[in-house]
Design brief:
The protein is α+β, with helices and mostly antiparallel strands and 72 residues long. The protein has one domain. 14% of the residues lie in helices and 32% in strands. It contains one helix and five strands; from the N terminus they run E-H-E-E-E-E. It has a five-stranded antiparallel beta sheet. The longest helix has 10 residues.
Length: 72
Protein backbone atom coordinates (compact mmCIF):
# COMPACT_ATOMS: atom_id res chain seq x y z
CA UNK A 1 0.00 0.00 0.00
CA UNK A 2 1.14 3.51 -0.76
CA UNK A 3 2.06 5.80 2.14
CA UNK A 4 -0.25 8.80 1.93
CA UNK A 5 0.04 12.20 3.57
CA UNK A 6 -2.94 14.47 4.22
CA UNK A 7 -3.58 16.62 1.15
CA UNK A 8 -1.88 14.29 -1.37
CA UNK A 9 -3.71 14.38 -4.74
CA UNK A 10 -5.25 11.03 -5.70
CA UNK A 11 -7.47 9.46 -8.34
CA UNK A 12 -10.40 7.31 -7.17
CA UNK A 13 -11.56 4.68 -9.65
CA UNK A 14 -13.58 1.49 -9.41
CA UNK A 15 -12.13 0.19 -12.68
CA UNK A 16 -15.21 0.73 -14.86
CA UNK A 17 -14.71 2.10 -18.36
CA UNK A 18 -16.12 5.58 -18.89
CA UNK A 19 -19.51 5.40 -20.65
CA UNK A 20 -20.28 7.74 -23.57
CA UNK A 21 -21.26 11.25 -22.44
CA UNK A 22 -24.59 11.08 -24.30
CA UNK A 23 -25.69 8.43 -21.78
CA UNK A 24 -26.15 11.18 -19.20
CA UNK A 25 -27.46 9.10 -16.27
CA UNK A 26 -24.84 6.37 -16.69
CA UNK A 27 -22.11 8.98 -17.07
CA UNK A 28 -23.27 10.86 -13.95
CA UNK A 29 -23.14 7.64 -11.90
CA UNK A 30 -19.67 6.87 -13.30
CA UNK A 31 -18.42 10.38 -12.39
CA UNK A 32 -19.69 9.91 -8.82
CA UNK A 33 -17.55 6.76 -8.44
CA UNK A 34 -14.49 7.92 -10.46
CA UNK A 35 -13.02 11.28 -9.53
CA UNK A 36 -9.93 13.25 -8.48
CA UNK A 37 -9.58 14.22 -4.83
CA UNK A 38 -7.21 14.72 -1.92
CA UNK A 39 -6.26 12.42 0.96
CA UNK A 40 -8.02 13.33 4.19
CA UNK A 41 -6.90 10.38 6.32
CA UNK A 42 -6.44 6.61 6.49
CA UNK A 43 -8.41 4.79 9.19
CA UNK A 44 -7.25 1.88 11.35
CA UNK A 45 -8.90 -0.66 8.99
CA UNK A 46 -6.89 0.66 6.03
CA UNK A 47 -9.77 2.45 4.30
CA UNK A 48 -8.73 5.71 2.69
CA UNK A 49 -10.77 8.87 3.32
CA UNK A 50 -10.80 11.07 0.21
CA UNK A 51 -12.00 14.68 0.04
CA UNK A 52 -13.09 15.95 -3.39
CA UNK A 53 -12.60 19.64 -2.64
CA UNK A 54 -9.53 19.56 -0.39
CA UNK A 55 -11.42 21.57 2.25
CA UNK A 56 -12.66 18.68 4.40
CA UNK A 57 -16.32 19.50 3.78
CA UNK A 58 -17.29 16.08 2.35
CA UNK A 59 -15.12 13.03 2.89
CA UNK A 60 -15.83 9.61 1.33
CA UNK A 61 -14.30 6.30 2.38
CA UNK A 62 -12.73 3.92 -0.18
CA UNK A 63 -10.86 0.62 -0.06
CA UNK A 64 -7.14 1.13 -0.79
CA UNK A 65 -7.21 -0.66 -4.18
CA UNK A 66 -9.53 2.06 -5.58
CA UNK A 67 -7.17 4.96 -4.72
CA UNK A 68 -4.01 5.77 -6.70
CA UNK A 69 -1.63 8.74 -6.43
CA UNK A 70 -1.82 11.30 -9.24
CA UNK A 71 0.52 13.96 -10.51
CA UNK A 72 -0.48 17.56 -9.95
Amino acid sequence: MHSYQKGDPVRVSNGEAEPPKHHTRKHAKWCFRNYDGFIHSVDSCGRVMVDESGKGALVRSHPPHQVTPRDV
